[in-house]
Fold this sequence. Notes:
Layout: E1 11-15, E2 19-24, E3 27-33, E4 49-54, E5 60-61, E6 69-73, E7 77-82, E8 85-87, H1 100-103
Antiparallel strand pairs: 1-2, 1-8, 2-3, 4-5, 4-6, 6-7
Amino acid sequence: MTRTRQERRRHMMYVTSHTEYHCRGREVVGVRDRHTGSWQRWHPMLRHRLVGAVDEEERFTRHIQVGTPLIFVGDTTYVTSRLRGRKRPPKDALGSYASLAASGLI
């Protein structure tokens, strides 16, 4: 008998040309510069929500896939460069997030 387990991991990392956006659920809890490796503690997208992407026909879609720009909404709306990859962040990254309360560590 095989049981289907519910996915418990909540963190995802979205990689664009210059930036890694680390999300817990759909909330941005960490932003890292890909070239320097430094965490951007005051990045304007922190605490914004990932709501979707821009499809090939430049329309909003909730379906996020590699090659589409991401859309974040908060105080402002922000559209990134094209998504290069999406994966689980390394475990050691969790302690570096600017918003530890949102990342589930506090």
